[in-house]
Amino acid sequence: MQLDPVTLEILNNKVAAITEEMCLTLQRTGRTLYVKETADFACALAGADGRFFAYPRSIGVSGFVGLECAPTIAAVEAMTGPLQPGDVILTNDPYLSKGLATHLPDLHMIEPYFHEGRIVAWGWCFVHCSDVGGRVPSSISPMNTEIFQEGLRIPPVRLMRGGEMVPEVRAFLDANSRTPEANMGDIRAMLAALAAGRRRVEQVVAQHGADVVVQASVDLVALAGKKARAVIASMPEGEYSFSDYLDDDAVSDLPVRLALKMTLKDGGVCLDFTGSDPQVQAAMNIPSHGRPHSWLTLRVLALVSTLDPSVPLNAGLLDPVSIIAPEGTIVNPLMPAATGVRHAAAVRVNDLLNGAFGLALPEALPAASSGTIIPVVVTEPDGRGGRNVQVVEPMIGGTGGRFGHDGVDGRDSGISNLANNPAETVEAELGVTFLSYALRPDSGGAGQWRGGAGMALSFRIDREGSFVLARGMERLKFRPWGREGGRPGAPAALIVNEGRADERRLGKIDMLPVKRGDIVTFLTPGAGGYGDPLARDPEAVLRDVAAGLVSPEAALGDYGVVIREGAVDAAATAAARAAARPSEGRIDFGPERRHWDAVFPADLMDRFNAALLSLPSGTRSSRRSRALRAALSLLPEGFPQVAASAGHAQAARAALEEEMAHG
Questions:
Q1: Peptide bond into 375 cis (omega under 30)
Q2: Which residues have CB under 8 Å from 158's CB, separation 6+?
Q3: Is the CB of residue 644 less than 8 Å from the CB of residue 635?
Q4: In 374-471, where do the E strands start and end?
Q5: Peptide bond connecting 640 to the previous residue in cis, omega within 30 degrees of 0
Q6: Phi and psi at residue 624, in whole multiples of 5°?
Q7: What's the pTM?
Q8: Which pLDDT tens digit goes with each residue over 258-306?
Q9: Integer CA distances (angstroms), 517 to 37, 51, 520, in order
């Protein structure tokens, strides 16, 4: 540490304020709803090593603190020489940027900030743009099987050279998007944000000197790393294992497993994802490149920052973290795997970390959150031969109940900080009418501390030729789990024309054609509960019933609370609770997961995935599908929603073992 603590703290606040001003500039000058309202963007300052030493705390996407700019910068300089003042790098390629970008709609920019011919810092920003071409409007579909279907790949290139936009780059951008004007509006907002950062860095350099600013970029990261190690060193050492599932890979009905063995030792944490499924032939792969990537480590960052709020928010938070992510798995895919819906798998990784850390610190970690983020998109004819593409809402559920506190209803910042879009703004931009946008009753998992309620959104389609897209739909099958006796949350659902003669109940969708007058309803999962529901204060249950979050029937069935004429019947409640069976077990995954694990236990799935990874990469997906289908064919129809008998389970396991033995 070269700077004194007082100077370092002053600079920490100054550089953090710079990133916040960059974000505010971007949001206020942005073109699209996803920037102006949803706030799917971020800004930061990076040091000489390309790691962020300053990051905003209260605006934009919260989880990208651990991204690295150095590979992208090196790629441009290797191709066209050192960067000069006025140059700005652009990329969206998950593979060529080495994980700075993680899907193609995220445009990333990097600008060198010079002082007297020397780079003193790098400005960075990203936005999720409306459309970069590809197979479907908005460029993201869970059904894409390779990145070439997902839109225009932009390798690390100079967008700006000497303060002027490179016309050839702009021509490629405009020619490969359904929404070129909207994209360019957001790109210019990004450039404005970078310019704001440059001006403020110049001011700080003028006040403190370039050497002090550069040293602060090193010392702040080192300080965060030191504090993070101290927090992790306070945790019980040991190995903690946890696994969870995605409902399926969107191109088949086969669940996708993610597994974690977490080792806490000597102030460090090793996250070993061995046992996770091979990369899928769908867009759910996380391009981590085997590094301590933001999508694999976010829960560590959040936990450390919660247990020690004084830790500077920068890349040093991840210094104590090491990663084992076998190449060719869903958490470290090989080119050209599709990555557009990588957030669906990232949410499940967050659940893995939450579950594993909860085994070590049960009173510090909550039950599972809703486990889904669904940017609901509508695309419609624009009247000029093109398409209008807009995000209706980024749908989420709630946060899990935790020791001493209920979960948050209808709000989950587990991997981002996205805001909802005002209904009036959406209706002004799209031919849709909101009918209902509310919390979903009886969705939060029962517990001594209830899980947060999910959301219920219904809107009417007012324009013919429209399509609805909803990438990232999850927890329709495997529910958000409860902890320490708490129950799981309700699963998700998608319904078209609910209650009408033409009602349809759907699973995951790609591009859903809808007619004028159709009513589309999304029901997001509730989060898991914490603690035995029979221990919940009956008056708290009564308040939930009065608020419409819990029905009187669920109050009795889940909590053993009898409500008559708007009040708790104490005697009847005592009798109902005495007759009820208390909760058992530390984790309640729900009946579907219990049925699955009874047939396919963790040790069997670990061996199965190890066998798959020993095969050539091009054969793993087909062999996995063939082996699992051979086993599932011996189980009852409707599994895992229905249980398998002991005989059926034994036969299915034997079939899977036989497939493994034959390679």
A1: no
A2: 76, 80, 83, 87, 88, 89, 90, 166, 169
A3: yes
A4: 374-381, 387-395, 432-439, 455-461, 466-470
A5: yes
A6: -60, -45
A7: 0.93
A8: 999 999 999 999 999 999 999 999 999 999 999 999 999 999 999 999 9
A9: 26, 50, 10
327-349 tens-digit pLDDT: 999 999 999 999 999 999 999 99
Q: Which two tokens stand for residue 152?
A: 């225009």
Rounded Cα gap, residues 190 and 176, in angstroms: 19
Within a 10 A sphere around the Cβ of 537, how many other Cβ atoms? 13
Which residues have CB under 8 Å from 6's CB, separation 6+?
A: none
Listed residue (100, 102, 111, 122) closest to 158, CA to CA? 111
Which pair of tokens denotes residue 309? 């709020």
Strand segments (E) across 560-608: 563-564, 567-568, 587-588
H or E element at residue 110? strand 106-115
Contact in structure between 526 and 487 (CB atoms under 8 Å):
no
CA distances from 532 to 85, 398, 661 (A): 61, 19, 43
Q: From residue 441, how far is each of 454, 525, 546 by CA, in Å?
A: 8, 11, 11
Quote the crossing angle between the two packed helices 646-661 and 591-599, to the nearest 10°.
Answer: 50
C-beta separation of 180 from 387 below 8 A = no
> Residue 40 and residue 126: Cα distance in Å, rounded?
8
